[in-house]
Amino acid sequence: MDETVAEYIRRTVLKIPRDEIKTMLEKWGLLSETQLQTINFRQIKESISQDVVQLCEENSVDIKQAAVLDIIYNHVYPNKRVWCVYQMKKTGEEAEFFDLTDFKKKFKGRLRSALKNVTINFREYEDNAIWIRIAWGTPYTKPNQYKPSYVVYHSQTPYVFISASVLKSNLPLLCQALVLASNYHDIREMELRSHSLNSLKDIVFKRYSQNFQTHYPRPLQERNVAPKSADLRIIQENRNEKERIERVNREVFGDGPQPKLEFAQYKLETMFKSDPQMDVLDKKEPFRCLVKFSSPHLLESLKSLAPAGMADAPISPLLTCIPQKARNYFKIREKKHFFPESFVSP
Amino acid sequence: MAAGAAPRPARRGGRREGGSNGPRREAAPGLVSVMESVEAVARTLLSFGRLSRGLPFGRAHGLSSRDPLLPLAPRSQENADPQRTAFLLRKQWTLYSVTPLYRFSNAHLRDYARLLSAFIAAEKQKGLAVEVGVELDIKVAVSSLPYLKGSDQDQAAILVQLSSRSPASPKNSEEKLIWSGWFCCVSGDNLSKNVPEDFTCLPLFLVNGAECYTSIVGSWFQKTFDCSFRRLAISPLILSWMAAMWTGCKVDKTASAMELVFSVPCLPQPLDISYAIHPEDAKALWDTVQKTPGEIIQEEVDVFMDCLYSHFHRHFRIHLSATKLVKVSTAIASAHCDGIIKVRF
């Protein structure tokens, strides 16, 4: 076995949390049950990984097989990467039957003819998700196994989730290969990025509970209200306003858990407006700003702003539209309209 | 004050030319903006002492009209050539407030350097990890910076510098500056009157360099002059001042954005908001807000910030004024509420 393969396997095993190593090796299936039993999974990771490499030597594992372990790791821990969402378009309306073998053949063919040296792995999962791992090389160099790109394609949908490696120059080729292999005509990047792959899927597949306008007031008993103190000396001022805020907030954000995003970015190219009495800037050109929101769980955080008194209720649709519009990068320009308060985002 | 005046007024305290109107100097544009920015930064750094203690400034607070320049300008305007203030530049400064020093004397700076040097050597021998795995010869220099002070009554700034030379390198090879700290005073007349004899007032301490050296030097000063150091937090009010002041400085085309960073920690999920404005647009706004050349008053800073907050509110319906301003950043410098200032150029 090549020492580069050995080193790659060693490093991949080291990434895995110690308690998970056995399970992942079993999923991987390259080592037999008896071989696995010879490993002491209680020792330090460095020793475990060396034992694994030793056994892989006996089985003459090659790089393509080693890469499968990497896919398994990334499938269990996708949130370590940043994922971008792409949408493919086809002109025809007929839903064509998806042929996986044909897809793989065309995909591999396109990449190999351009680069010659690529390591490509496919792995199918239950929810019709096809995971593709690509390690990029050039006609003259071997593939870099440490900076692979990942693609998750749900064949029944036009959506592709890509975790590009640092080698961004390969992105156009990757997109080309996807379009070709899946019989689409075009692909575009959606302005939607996050670490949480499942949340991205929730957003584009509309699997989160969406907000909707209620035309009847929801009886308050439905809500899981925290038991208020029985002390009659404590009264809530502005109770009505507080309840209005809660209600409106739930209307615009929806009731269910929010998809998990970490950031949203707005490039503002709107006009600066001020109170005419203040006699400040009155330019005819846009006031250029870049606003970035970040949080471990952005949408939940934004949802809590109005009840905390830091935002008006309802909060701006620029923020609440994130799941529906399936984007978290925006460019906002002034709408050429009677009502300059409204914004359009291209 | 003479309108459209001579480019560089010679009067004490100088004048801040916050706007960019009128012909000012004949010097090359590049040099001009560097000089302005050095002034702005020096002024700013020195103003912290005053601003942090909430001492009044600004026309609205009744400072005499004789000296309307605010915040206090250092005497650097008169005789600071870029060389002498160069040590301020391209560095990150951590701020401390210091209680008055007992029996400190400007005449004994050389002795202090010697004593501090011995102290550091002793600490190293004791085994305090100064720098892991590296054997360094540390040389201490203590000097006075008479041009860095708020007014004549103030104590001159004191600069402490630690340089090192690896024992392996030849005797006359260059020493590398590894740590700098300077004490300064900007209180002006107010404080000096109240300071008892034997005490020297240098309430602001700025540090650049490794924390291990900071604590050694700090311990020595504490032991020797019976003073104490405390990290200085920069309040949102002062951060707003910095933002407004630095935004007004002239910068070139490639300047970075004026950025305000807000934090909302007390939510179920914490939120950070970065609000960056194109430097030309920010300056254009500030130039219309700041009405009187050579002065900044609190109301102007308030209006400037309110404009930015209301522009933000118009889009997002979030009240930035309810959040905590933790950092401001411009092409010239950035300041963080934990008492850290980075001079950028």
UniProtKB/TrEMBL annotation, chain A:
InterPro entries: CENP-NAC/CAD_complex, Chl4/mis15/CENP-N. Transmembrane segments: none annotated. Keywords: Centromere, Chromosome, Nucleus. GO terms for biological process: CENP-A containing chromatin assembly; chromosome segregation. It is found in: Chromosome, Centromere; Nucleus. It comes from the Eukaryota. Its main location: nucleus. GO terms for cellular component: inner kinetochore; nucleoplasm. The keyword Nucleus applies. Belongs to the CENP-N/CHL4 family. This is Centromere protein N. It comes from Aquila chrysaetos chrysaetos.
TrEMBL record, chain B:
It is found in: Chromosome, Centromere; Nucleus. Residues 1-29 are annotated as: Disordered. Signal peptide: none annotated. Residues 15-27 have a biased composition (Basic and acidic residues). It comes from the Eukaryota. Keywords: Centromere, Chromosome, Nucleus. This is Centromere protein L. The lineage of its organism: Eukaryota, Metazoa, Chordata, Craniata, Vertebrata.
